[in-house]
Specification:
By secondary structure, the protein is mostly beta strands. It contains no helices and four strands. The chain has a single domain, classed as Rubrerythrin, domain 2 (Single Sheet). The protein binds zinc ion (ZN). Zinc ion binds next to loops.
Length: 54
């Protein structure tokens, strides 16, 4: 049904504490309309921090 490859964008996730950009991931902008927020480990903060899409 859905065409492949058109709606997927690369996003960068930045730590909510220190702002460092620790992760890259992909988001299908048709399925996920909001900006991503993921709880991931930040080695700089040494803990799990909410990372936000930038
Ligand atoms: Zn951090």
């Amino acid at each position: 049904m859905a065409k492949k490859g058109e709606a997927v964008i690369l996003v960068t996730l930045a730590c909510g504490e220190c702002g460092r950009r620790n992760y890259h991931t992909k988001r299908n902008k048709l399925n996920v309309r909001e900006k991503l927020r993921l709880n991931k480990y930040c080695k700089w903060c040494q803990g799990h921090i909410v990372h936000k899409e930038v």
